[in-house]
Design a protein that fits this description.
alpha+beta; elongated
């Protein structure tokens, strides 16, 4: 009799765990799209405020890397100094600073050059934001990610995954 009771309780517990993990999995799976769309809207807003009519965000690039948890990449149409259209990649990556983690935006050009564009949520209008941005532009974290982005998103990978436009 004790064995039957034990197996019943064990079965109920395992059933609960299986259902719990299935629910967690689907919640994570479904929230990925919301997360990506939210970052895309924030990126568009940031680029429109900071660089009016220079960039147009196209679509999300799926990054198969462990960094995809704290990084997102989007195709961009940008205008260069000669007002010609250029394809590039916007990389939004979590940068650890003394102010906490902040979403940094980089432009990864088809030439392989990486430029730091700024921090989402910082428009640089207040004195405090200006001083933070000025300090961050020279920081080791910003420079480190500028060097790492080409390793995380090699141009050959981009050619294969976005139709050879870069």
């Amino acid at each position: 009799m004790d064995v039957k009771k034990f197996l019943t309780e064990y079965g109920l517990f395992l059933s609960f765990l299986v259902v719990f993990f299935i629910v967690i999995f689907f919640m994570c799976f479904l929230s990925k799209n919301f997360w990506s769309r939210g970052i895309e809207k924030q990126l568009e807003s940031f680029l429109n405020k900071s660089y009016p009519e220079k960039y147009q965000v196209k679509e999300n690039i799926i990054v198969n890397s462990p960094f995809s948890v704290s990084m997102a990449a989007y195709e961009l149409n940008s205008k260069n100094e000669k007002n010609q259209q250029e394809d590039s990649i916007a990389v939004v990556i979590k940068i650890t600073t003394m102010y906490g983690p902040l979403p940094g935006v980089y432009e990864y050009k088809s030439s392989g050059e990486v430029d730091f564009l700024g921090i989402i949520g910082f428009d640089g209008k207040s004195k405090k934001e200006k001083s933070i941005l000025d300090g961050l532009k020279k920081s080791i974290q910003i420079l480190r990610w500028k060097e790492r982005i080409p390793d995380l998103l090699p141009l050959s990978y981009l050619d294969e995954n976005i139709g050879g436009s870069i």
